[in-house]
Amino acid sequence: MTDVPANFWAVVPAAGIGSRMRAGKPKQYLTIGDRSVLEHTLARLTAHPLIAGVVIALAEHDDYWPGLRHLPVKPLHRVTGGAERCHSVLHCLHYLQATQAPDTWVLVHDAARPCVRSTDIDNLILRCRDHEVGGLLGIPVHDTMKRCDTAGAVLDTVDRRQLWHAMTPQMFRLHQLADALQQALARELLVTDEASAMEALGLHPVMVEATADNIKITRPEDLALAAFYLDQQGAPPCA
Ligand code: C5P
Questions:
Q1: 148 φ/ψ angles, rounded to the nearest 5 degrees
Q2: Domain count, the chain
Q3: Is the CB of 190 under 6 A from ligand 1?
């Protein structure tokens, strides 16, 4: 990777309130060891040599951010998030568009995925940097998949052979991603990740297989699992 210029930007939507955690505070501010989930995530991203800096979207009245003590030394720019994740990402992209070239690669990464490995970021960058669209990390589905109605009755079994869990980072070119998200919003499409917005334009992002420990903290039990994975991977790099 030494031949690749370090001009990849990380975009971190961190303006969610994480209601599924029932934790009293947004999940990115829950603690693992000596720091918050968000500080772990930022440390992971900025420890990667090709990441030039981070643009982070925070909720408008975020009382927790000022209390963080382990922020990265690389450039870190804050913007105010929006109503949904896609709005928060767009705000970050608009910020970057003022200073970065349209074809700059951005890696959008959930604040609540603190266990992302540097080697998985390497693989994503290597697979995507010459790709015409970009791509995302994910893992193949191994469970049997059922489609149910709203009452919980099983309707059918879905063929899992082509199914993947979509993760982050998701890596796309700055201008193309901003355009895709804007078009999705204009069409009132519910896009829960960046790849969906690209797919809606008829484009085909590449799926890059990740390590399964790149979990998103969503439910209370995920916090202990993330702590276990971070411990297994070794101490987090200091910010
Ligand atoms: O709720 P969910 O896990 O899907 O959120 C994914 C990421 O998007 C989280 O990092 C969350 O903070 C962020 N988000 C955001 N703005 C919103 C909603 C979610 O930045 N309005």
A1: -125, 160
A2: 1
A3: no
